[in-house]
Amino acid sequence: MKTTLMALTFALAAPFALAAPDAQTILAGSDAVRNPDKPFGLIVSLVSYKDGQENERSALAVYSRADKNSGQFRSLLRFVSPARDAGKLMLKNGNDLWFYDPASKASVPISPQQRLLGQASNGDVVTVNLALDYTAKLDGEEDIQDGDRQSRHCYKLHLSARNGGVTYHAIDLWLDKDGYRSRKAKFYAESGSLLKTAYYRGYRQVLGRERPTETVIIDGLNPKWVTVMRNSDFAWREVPEAWLQRDYLPRFRAE
């Protein structure tokens, strides 16, 4: 009788012990892995390839901080290279993006989906909290190959956009069960067509915890079109409120 009671107790308790965390909690945990919790700066280097041959390359300095009210990141991006683009700026404030060209002295609104380099859009370069812009659903667990062709057992989340101002209508995201490190993502248009697949790799200790330092982005239609984004020169730094104002763009000077 005692043995039967113990077995029944374990059977009833097991589903609760093994239950996965809430999907939105998992997504917020993955945001914390990718995103530092204080104002910071870094350099993003992008190289695009077509049919295995290098096609373009560029570099941007990124200055970012989270908004105290919304929790979403606000970022200023300064183009470093190539020389023809050096000094141009891009500002993200909420879901609004502006591009500033010192030659014309005009700042113009742009779409997050507009091309930046290869398959890396403006929305890929700026820092975002996905949990604020997307509703997450846990689609179970899957074994996948990560960006280094290593087998990973992951949670799979399906993300649905909360509003039309975000870069992608939906995202499938695979994360480590332990630590919520993002490993793979697929990004979809409103039509349901696959826009790109991304692999997050190069995890190392930066700004207080292990974070990805490289993203490989593969075109949804032509897998031979690949963009590699590498993040370097991470640093805690002041990001003045003035830098994040559209009217300040003509007066910005790199330190």
From TrEMBL:
Q: Which UniProt key words apply to this protein?
A: Lipoprotein, Signal
**CDD domains (UniProt xref):** LolA_like
Concerning Pfam families, the annotation shows:
LolA_like
Signal sequence extent: 1-19
Family matches, as Gene3D superfamilies: Lipoprotein localisation LolA/LolB/LppX
Q: Which residues form the Uncharacterized protein TP-0789 domain?
A: 74-251
Q: What is this protein called?
A: Outer membrane lipoprotein-sorting protein
